[in-house]
Amino acid sequence: MPDWLTNLIEALREMPLWHQLLLGFGLFLVMFLGSIAAVTCILVKLPATYFQDHHPPAFAEHHPVIRWTALVLKNLLGLVLIVIGTLLSLPGVPGQGFITILIGVMLLNFPGKRALERKIILRPAIHQTINKLRARFGKPPLLLEDDLKPESATMPAKGE
């Protein structure tokens, strides 16, 4: 274990109990407010058509070097957000776990990503929460009509 971490742990053990409790409450508050602020910012800036089939891929019009650098950084950030979201989903840890995981998944590039995103966003509680948040900031709701069309609506009826 690094020396700085060992020294930090020892310093925490030597603190009075009320200092430890105060530090724990402060970290709790920072994590709670920080996760809500970050998730809110990302969901409000998300284009309303993000979950539709015709939404263009990220960085499509940029130079290849910029595009690949941005894609690598975007995927790393996505992995970090998934880990944080998983931790926030644990009992007793404050924050928006599932929404943070959704944002992390949205940043990753992998086969089957769109289907997984749609499965998550179609959960009524998540979809309603996101749309209420977007409405509070004057943004339109997320559009999902590509996902909600029944397949029978596109196929001709028998006998036609």
Structural commentary:
The chain has 160 residues and is mainly alpha-helical. It has a domain at 62-138. 64% of the residues lie in helices and 0% in strands. Helix 3 (64-88) runs antiparallel to helix 4 (97-107). The chain is globular and about 60 Å long. The termini are far apart. Mean pLDDT is 79; it is low at 150-160.
Topology:
Blueprint: H1 3-14, H2 17-45, H3 64-88, H4 97-107, H5 113-121, H6 124-136, H7 145-148
Helix pairs in contact: 3-4
What would you say about this model in short?
This protein has 160 residues and is mostly helical. It has helices at 3-14, 17-45, 64-88, 97-107, 113-121, 124-136, 145-148.
Q: How many beta-strand runs? A: 0
Mean pLDDT: 79
Secondary structure: helix percent: 55-70%
Which regions are unreliable across 5 or more consecutive residues at pLDDT < 50? 150-160
Q: DSSP strand (E) fraction?
A: under 5%
Q: Which structural category fits the helices and strands?
A: mainly alpha
The arrangement of helices and strands along the chain is HHHHHHH
Count of helical regions? 7
Distance between the termini: 73 Å
Radius of gyration: 21 Å
Report on the biggest sheet: none
Shape: globular
Offer a few descriptive terms.
160 residues, mainly alpha, 7 helices, 64% helix, 0% strand, disordered C terminus
